[in-house]
Amino acid sequence: MDPIESSLGRALHIQARTIKGLVLRDLVLRYGRDNIGFAWVVLEPMLLTMGVMVIWSLTGTGKKEGMTVIEVVFTGYLPLTLWRHMTGGGVFLFRRSYSLLYHRSVTLFDLVVSRQILEFIGTSTALLVIWGGLNLFGLVQIPREIDLFLLGWWMMGSIALATSACFAVATELSESAERFVQPFQYLNIPISGAFFLVDWLPTWAQSAIAYHPLVHCYEVFRSGYFGATIVAHYDLIYFCACTVVVAFAAVIATRRVRDRLLLA
Q: Cys-Cys crosslink for 194: which of 72, 76, 95, 163, Cβ 3.0 to 4.6 Å?
């Protein structure tokens, strides 16, 4: 075997083992051993989503272009929950886990990824449980195009991961940055595409909203769920470019945080 391939294989094995250990540590620290534990990772977004669905169903106006209120909320609020949980998890992340850097195999990258893997798995499980329950009662359908459905979910997770790293850096460099995270999340909701389709907007608004990368996540996710029954507007190349830019900025900024932590 090539020595380079052998070294790379060992490095990936150590990386995977480190991240797995950090995920299990976060799970135990956050949810404990004696209570419902990981189940709460699933129950929390599930309860919130079901609550929103009930309220919207009671106040909604029925169907819009073949879509029920429940389907609109299902395809809007769950990706929003994934975004909020993953980005919110980046606040003061490095500060809370600073002691783990004592171990040579643990890096700042591992701290971010392990935390976000837990959030992603929890919210993804909630997605499956909620869909299964609603489908059992005939309230939601089977996604028409599974590949696009899963791609939209993955897109939301990928940009949330990059953004959470930026939040982790910002809150480490300045404590006041934490005060802007929640306002940013809430102000983002009405323009993210969570509760509307781009095709519902006027032409000038469609062009403007297309600059928001989260809109493309929702359009792909809903295109996978509703299929050809809706007109979806998305640009995968633009979304990938935005995600790469955010991730690159996070990597560069993390170097500053690493140097600062080493000097602390």
A: 76
